[in-house]
Design brief:
It is a single chain. The chain is mainly beta. It has one domain. It contains one helix and eleven strands; from the N terminus they run H-E-E-E-E-E-E-E-E-E-E-E. The strands form two sheets. A six-stranded antiparallel beta sheet has the order 3-2-6-7-8-9, with no helix packed on it. The chain has a five-stranded mixed beta sheet with strand order 4-5-1-11-10, with no helix packed on it.
Length: 152
C-alpha cells in the first residue's frame, strides 16, 4: 500500500511540475489567416510614376487584376489601391509559385509570376514573397517601402 501511495505522490508531483512549464514557446500565428500580399507600382525608365501621377498613363480606375482558371475563365483577384503610399496591394494565394495578370489598359496586359518560400525563421512558418516577375523580367523590391516596382 505504501508503494502505491509513493507512486501516486510521484505522479502528482510530475503532473504539477509539468503544468508549471512556461508557455513562452507558444506563439499565436494570426497572420496565417491573412493572405499573402504583394504591393506593386509601375514607373517608366526615368522613374516617373505611371499610375499615381497627376496625369497617369494607367489610371487606377481601369486596372483589372485576375488569374486564369484551367478552363480559360478569368477569375478576379482581390486588390486595393493605396493612393497615399502609391501602390496596388494584391491578395495572392499562399503557394510556392503562382501567376496572375494585370490589365493596365485594354491593350496592355502584364503576366506576373511570383515565387514564395516558407520563412524558416518565422515561428509561424508562413510564406514570404521572394520574387515577382513582370513578363519574365524581375521586379525591383524596395525593403523600406515594401513595394515591388515594375518598369514600362
Amino acid at each position: 500500500m505504501i508503494n502505491y501511495f509513493k507512486l501516486f505522490a510521484l505522479s502528482v508531483i510530475f503532473i504539477a511540475v509539468g503544468a508549471c512549464k512556461s508557455n513562452d514557446d507558444n506563439v499565436f500565428c494570426a497572420e496565417i489567416y491573412i493572405p499573402m500580399v504583394s504591393n506593386i507600382n509601375y514607373v517608366n525608365e526615368n522613374g516617373k510614376d505611371l499610375i499615381f501621377s497627376d496625369n497617369p498613363l494607367y489610371p487606377v480606375e481601369g486596372i483589372e487584376i485576375y488569374k486564369i482558371a484551367p478552363n480559360d475563365q478569368h477569375i478576379p483577384l482581390s486588390f486595393t489601391i493605396n493612393s497615399s503610399q502609391k501602390f496596388i496591394a494584391v491578395n495572392l494565394e499562399k503557394m510556392e509559385n503562382g501567376t496572375f495578370y494585370i490589365r493596365l489598359k485594354s491593350d496592355v496586359i502584364d503576366r506576373i509570376s511570383y515565387t514564395a518560400k516558407i520563412d524558416e525563421s518565422d515561428p509561424c512558418r508562413d510564406y514570404k514573397l521572394k520574387e515577382l516577375r513582370q513578363n519574365d523580367k524581375a521586379g525591383q523590391y524596395d525593403t523600406k517601402t515594401q513595394v515591388w516596382t515594375f518598369k514600362k
